[in-house]
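User: Thanks for the earlier help. One more: Rod shape-determining protein RodA. Can you show the sequence and predicted structure together?

Assistant: Of course, both are below.
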Amino acid sequence: MENKKGFADRFDWTLAFIILLFLIVSVLAISSAITTGQYAGTNFAAKQVFWYAVGTIIIGFVMIFEPEQYKKMSWIIYGFGILLLAILFILPGSMELVAPRNNAKSWFHLPIGDIQPAEFMKTFYILALARLITKHHEVYLMKSIKTDFILLGKIAVTLIVPLAFILKQPDLGTALVFIAITAALVIVAGITWKIILPLVLGSATIGASLLWMALYMQEFLEDKFGLQAYQFARIYSWIDPYAYASDEGMHLISSLNAIGSGEIFGKGYGGRVVYVPENHTDFIFAVIGEEYGFIGASIVISLFFLLIFHLTKITLQLKDAYSTYVCAGIIAMITFHVFENIGMTIQLLPITGIPLPFISYGGSSLMGNMLAIGLVFSMKFHHKTYMFAKNEDD
């Protein structure tokens, strides 16, 4: 049986409209951010429109393929992503193509701009993990603690390869995104809480212990593990930014001052006074908070809530397990990005250098997110045709 609905009926116009709203917010925020004069006249707003255009093409291309095709290609796509991460270290750092930036080997320097393969690897990893979980459930029809441990082991192996490359770059923020995606899919995969709860408690205990040691046992960590004092700076500057106002705490203090000075209604477009370094990328929310105040910031947060709600609604409508896992991973990825980015601008979380999805300037980040959204478009566009095809085969 074929789905006789046309393109207009199957295309997700609501999701497209939400992305359009993000484009408007992004361009307005970035165009205002670059008026500070710290960017040597570079029009990042126009560049962001260009990346959105490229992202739209990516969505159109991704929609061509059906969920079953992505399921078959998952490991190939995952392997391609690992290869890109490996090339960053295989090629000599002296080469212009992979020369380190800010002491990190994370980018390919191409004529169109710097491309960060880790941004695409997030989505590639989701595709592979969804395939792994789906296949596991097909093989082990009878669920038990033993089979859950087997699944958890498979997931751990799949995670550790990209995670090792990303930590070596080093890029802690992106590594945390991979861990968040993994945690979400472990829960969605149905692994028993008899396993998950001890893991969560153990991880929380280790994390709290490390934080306490970083605050009160620095000499022990330096002597026993070879850590250096500067490596604790982000934690110290997060807890007490004013003690590091001239160094690590400067970004956070500037962000807090900017958002706080916006008060309820903000200062209006271009009305910023507080200087925030690199405010068109990771700290774009500070621009929004200062210029549009609590009301404007709340509207942006609500827009993200609307996006997550709509993606969740799509996920619940899907009949294919693989598509469901893919969408769940994408939801986890975007949600963590939003929570971490906004959290770090208001001192709720440490600064990790994670951009605000669809709003911060950045070609790699935006294209990676558009790739992920393109998969959701594809899952929604093809899911009825795919469902009927599956019933027909049965």
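User: Great, one quick takeaway?

Assistant: The beta strands are 108-110, 113-115.
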